[in-house]
Amino acid sequence: MRWWSVANFVSNAGTWMQLTVQNLLVLQITGSAAATGLSMSVQAAPALLISVFGGAAVDRWPRKLTAAVSQALLGAVAFVTALMVALDRLDVTSLMVLAAVTGVIATVDGPACSLLGNDLVPAQDVPSAIGVGALVHQAGRLTGAALAGVTVGFLGTAAAYAANGLSFLFVASVIPFLRPARGAVKHTGAVKRGGEADTMTVREGLAFFARRPRLLALAGVTGVSAVFGRNYHLTLAVLVTGPLAGGAGSFGTVSTVLAVGGIVGAVLGARLRRPSVRTVGALAAAGGLLQVVAGLSPSLAVLLVMVLPMAVVESVSDTAGTAVLQTDPPAHMRGRVLGVWGSIGTVWGLGGPPALGLLMELAGARGALIAGGLIIAGSIGAGHLLRQRQTGTPVALRAGDAEVPGQAALGTAA
Q: What is the distance between the alpha carbons of residues 173 and 164, in angstroms, rounded to a whole number?
């Protein structure tokens, strides 16, 4: 697990170096902000369309081999991009194609690497391992963004892509030496059900997700939070530079506090032993209320005081939600469930910022923060009351759909 964490830190730092540089590269080539946004959408689009197939592949194929091959392929794409930049042969079309290829590979790489990390610890420690992964991600993000500027300044844009390629190869070289921990949940591949082999179909993943109340509840909580909150780099940027009359330096301070809060939240999230959808909902509602107070901030100093707990709550909520998502399904279904989640999350990722931007156009930055926070807290509160009124009669699942035969579909995690 220590080696895997080191590898993930290196990989995350390389990825954020490339992401930081890529937007600047598109602007340099095209001079168009719209083209920059399009390149990000092109890379995200495959997740919307084929994540469910990527998840099915992860359930079907050997996990270590799948993760190693996907990392090596991502490294190859990064090296090709670096070479084209160095030779001044990269145009908009080539960049879009490479971004799309990266997105396709990521539909397999994401769930494979996420689940591989869970194999390295005993089953009861998976929530903590997910928290450690969130901490590593935050640290890699900060390091990569900082290194991007230094690398481009001294070595050029191509060097940032080459460094990312090396980071992928480092991860691929570490994976063969990883060994599952004693007591870890075993990935058994195709399982027998009624004498027939599980076909690992996409349809089964979709059906499992659709009839699992706690996963649907998690999707609802995360969706409303993603659309009406969380996009703090958008809403707070407008608030700081508008009503609070701050500049780029002030927003940089806010961004730093957000990053620190994310790290603190990841540390706290790693201490969760039995996260549930109820925990995620409570944290999301609390984050919504904090967002309301932030929208009412009369000064930058007050906003900074509110931003830190907002980031902490968001990070802990994300860690808890990821833990539920990766531990609730039975082992042979987890890749497909993550694939379905990848498609759903892409919808929020692509639709949330425009919706929030429209809300800011209508209500202003303060109004968007306040209204969004009230919608989040109100929706989650209404859902909780509705859940309380429902009968508590458990719904028994088929033996193949739960780790424990007869496990109730409506358990405490709902």
A: 14
pLDDT, one tens digit per residue, over 80-120 is 999 999 998 888 888 889 988 998 999 999 999 999 998 89
> What is the CB neighbour count within 10 angstroms for residue 125?
18
Helix intervals (H) in 31-156: 33-60, 63-86, 92-118, 126-155
For the segment 326-355, the average pLDDT, to the nearest whole number, is 88
> Between the ranges 31-40, 167-176, 194-203, 257-266, where is the mean pLDDT highest?
167-176
CA distances from 79 to 14, 51, 108 (A): 12, 24, 20
- Residue 295 and residue 373: Cα distance in Å, rounded? 9
Calpha distance 137→102 (Å, rounded): 19
- 361 or 367, which is more confident? 367
The token pair at 199 is: 């076909």
What distance in Å separates the CA atoms of residue 211 and residue 195, rounded to the nearest whole number?
A: 24
Sign of the torsion formed by the C-alpha atoms of 230, 235, 241 and 246: negative
The CA distances from residue 107 to 104, 150, 271, 327, in Å, are 5, 30, 29, 19
Question: Which residue, among 5, 20, 358, 295, has the nearest Cα to 160 in the 3D structure?
Answer: 20
pLDDT at position 59 is 92
CB atoms within 10 A of CB 46: 22
Report pLDDT digits (tens) over 43-67: 777 888 889 999 999 999 999 999 9
R_g of the chain computed on alpha carbons: 22
Q: Could you tell me if 301 and 252 are in contact, meaning their C-beta atoms sit under 8 angstroms apart?
A: no
